[in-house]
Every structure is written in structure tokens, then in C-alpha cells.
Write a structure and sequence with these properties.
With 286 residues, this protein is mainly α. It is 75% helix and 1% strand. It is found in: Cell membrane.
């Protein structure tokens, strides 16, 4: 009786296991197709001539797989080299400022007790809840009033001053650093700046790596702020806008430029993916 009854039960368990496994791989295949299909379309478009692009569909393979003329036009006419240089300057200064301001603010909020501390934390929380689009007019007036419009300093100031998430991330990591390290350093004669610079900051390397990766990718891909606040110079995200005008768009060249823009991000991800996963998971459980 036991053998007879267990047969259908084992069959049902095996059927549920097969169904779950099929659903898992089916969802992965769908996700992979949704991710790769736009990239394949861009790759095909980048290798086509203008006439070929207009006469064929988006998923039609190019006739000449070695047609790299669009890449050369995008790089030269789009002044992408200057765009990479401008992006590197804005990126480096913004990240350095974000790390310095964020770690200093987190150190003050985590290690010091002062009047109004809860109010400051509440204001940070409120700032994260306000949609950025609602403050664009006021932000533009402030930048223009400071005389920073159409300068790289406007972008650097905006990128450094609007990252409340980085401050929260630094606070979460700093709470795992024992206060006894600060006290031991003070007994040895170190002042607060020395403790921050030589004790706390080196221990924040995982958090700094996480902020550099997440913030760096966000700045690299940002289009709205460079387009609005730096119209006379191109960053890499706005350089492709040259090929879009009132008389039409050169999508085959834009596609080639898009692939050029993706290359640094792809290399950075392949080199730093271990830090990305480690930083995100560490921040999630603290």
C-alpha cells in the first residue's frame, strides 16, 4: 500500500520540480532576450550604411560586418575624445568631493552628539523624498546667480551636493567601526582630524569603492544636467546629440557612437564587478 501510494506522490513532486526549473530557465531566457535585443539592434545599425539602414529592418544583419565608417564619423565629428576628457574631469572632481563631503558628514553624524542632530537626519530623509524635478527652477536660478552657468563647476557642484544616499551608505558602514578605535587613538594623542583621516577613512574603503562605482556610472550616463548647464561643451553623454537635428537623425552614426560610449562602462564593470556585488550586498545587510 505504501509503495502504491508513494508512486503518484513522487510523480507529483517530480512534475513540480520540472515545472519550477522550466519556469526559472524560461524567465532567464526572456530576461536575456529583453536585455540583448536592443544591443543587437544597435550593433546591426552601427554597421550599416545610411541607405542600407533606411531600406532594411532593425533586426536585418548588415551586408558588410567590417563597415567601421560610422564609428570613425561618430568619434571625429562628435568630438568624442573631448567629450571623454570633459567627462573624466567632471567625474574625478565630483567623486573626490562626494567622498570627502560624504565621509566627513557621516563622521560628524555618527561620532558626535550635538543639538539638532535628529533634525539634520530628518532633513536628509526629507531631501531624499522630494522629486528632483520639482526643484529644477530654483536650482537653475542658484547656479545662474553664482555665475556658474555654462561651466564645469556647475556640474561638479550639482553632482557633489545632491547625493544623500552616499551619506547614508557611509553612516551605515561607519556604525560597524568600533568607537574604541577612536578612544585608543585619542589616548595616543590624536585629534579628531587625525582620527578621521588615519583611522576611520582607511576602514571605509569598501563603502568608498561602492560609492565610486555607483556614483561614477550615474555621472557617466547623466544626460539632463550636462545638456542644461553646460551647453557650450560636450560630455560623452551629450556628444551624440550632434547627429540629431531638425532635418532628421543619423541613427546609424548615433548607434556607432553609443557602442563607443558603452565600452568604458563595460570594461569598468568587468574589472570591478566583484566590488560592485560585494558593496551592494554589504550595504544591504548593515
Amino acid at each position: 500500500m505504501t509503495t502504491t501510494a508513494s508512486g503518484p506522490r513522487l510523480g507529483a513532486i517530480r512534475a513540480r520540480t520540472i515545472s519550477a526549473r522550466t519556469a526559472k530557465y524560461l524567465s532567464l531566457v526572456i530576461a536575456a532576450v529583453c536585455t540583448l535585443l536592443p544591443l543587437v539592434t544597435v550593433l546591426f545599425a552601427s554597421l550599416k550604411t545610411k541607405q542600407e539602414y533606411g531600406a532594411t529592418g532593425p533586426l536585418t544583419p548588415p551586408e558588410n560586418w567590417l563597415n567601421l565608417e560610422n564609428f570613425a564619423i561618430a568619434f571625429d565629428s562628435g568630438e568624442m575624445l573631448q567629450g571623454f576628457v570633459n567627462t573624466a574631469i567632471v567625474l574625478a572632481v565630483s567623486l573626490a568631493g562626494t567622498i570627502f563631503i560624504g565621509t566627513m558628514a557621516a563622521y560628524a553624524l555618527d561620532r558626535f552628539e550635538f543639538r539638532g542632530k535628529k533634525l539634520v537626519m530628518a532633513l536628509f530623509l526629507i531631501a531624499t523624498l522630494i522629486p528632483s524635478v520639482t526643484s529644477q527652477v530654483a536650482t537653475f536660478q542658484v547656479i545662474n546667480g553664482l555665475g556658474l552657468y555654462d561651466t564645469k563647476a556647475a556640474l561638479i557642484l550639482l553632482f557633489m551636493g545632491t547625493d544623500i544616499i552616499a551619506i547614508y551608505l557611509f553612516i551605515q558602514f561607519m556604525q560597524s567601526i568600533p568607537v574604541s578605535l577612536d578612544e585608543a587613538a585619542m589616548i595616543d594623542g590624536a585629534n579628531r582630524w587625525t582620527i578621521y583621516w588615519r583611522v576611520v577613512l582607511p576602514l571605509l574603503k569598501p563603502a568608498i569603492a561602492t560609492v565610486v562605482i555607483i556614483k561614477g556610472i550615474a555621472i557617466y550616463n547623466e544626460f539632463y544636467s550636462p545638456f542644461l548647464y553646460l551647453p557650450s561643451e560636450d560630455l560623452i553623454s551629450t556628444s551624440l546629440f550632434r547627429f540629431k537635428g531638425p532635418f532628421g537623425s543619423q541613427w546609424e552614426i548615433i548607434s556607432a557612437g553609443t557602442l563607443i560610449v558603452i565600452i568604458p562602462t563595460l570594461i569598468a564593470f568587468l574589472l570591478l564587478q566583484r566590488w560592485i556585488y560585494k558593496g551592494l550586498t554589504s550595504g544591504a545587510v548593515k
